[in-house]
Design goal:
Length: about 200
């Protein structure tokens, strides 16, 4: 009889090889294909987002639920980001009837942050949304990530279904190469208060 096995997180790729930085040779964004990839998907989201920003003792505490019904909605697309075959990031892209693509729970696991992988995953996610016919990307940025998103063309603006949590900043970005023209919802200006100033 074989001993019981447990899921072990992927080891981080070697950052140095003979004194030179090692960059991933292949990057992919796709749906999880195995129980191990689903486990990594939920683990990264729970550790890097829920426990960091909504953990016990925070004003907006709530438990991470891997079985939340939104994960099974056919219009929502849970995706993993792989660097050289290892799951290093997550995003869920929710496609809305108004032509908006909502990026949810965007995260790069801690050991892989700071090497441009977040920018690469964001570009692939934008291409996914454009291919699906979206004309606008919407997301709720935590203050730590606000400058990252503004550097990538996002601007503060409220959108239908955006957060009511004052510790997050709703941002949007039009997709120039949307496949299907849509009638956009008129923009609702957002007052970026001390949160955006603190993120600057």
């Amino acid at each position: 009889m074989l001993p019981a096995t447990r899921a072990v997180p992927d080891a981080p790729p070697t950052k140095q090889q003979k004194g030179r930085p090692v960059r991933p040779r292949s990057l992919r964004l796709r749906a999880p294909r195995s129980l191990r990839e689903w486990a990594r998907y939920h683990d990264i989201r729970k550790r890097c987002l829920f426990e960091k920003y909504n953990g016990k003792g925070t004003p907006y505490y709530f438990e991470y639920d891997p079985n939340h019904p939104d994960e099974r909605d056919p219009a929502n697309h849970p995706l993993v980001f792989l660097a050289d075959g290892q799951v290093v990031g997550t995003i869920r892209i929710d496609l809305k009837p108004d032509g908006h693509a909502v990026f949810r729970l965007v995260a790069i696991d801690d050991p892989w942050q700071g090497d441009g992988l977040g920018s690469a995953m964001l570009a692939m996610a934008e291409a996914f949304a454009a291919d699906a016919g979206a004309d606008m990307i919407c997301l709720n940025a935590v203050p730590d990530a606000y400058r990252f998103y503004t550097r990538h063309g996002f601007a503060p603006q409220r959108w239908v279904g955006c957060t009511g949590n004052p510790t997050e900043i709703p941002v949007v970005k039009p997709i120039a190469e949307a496949m299907t023209p849509r009638t956009p919802i008129p923009p609702v200006p957002v007052a970026v208060t001390a949160i955006a100033q603190a993120a600057a």
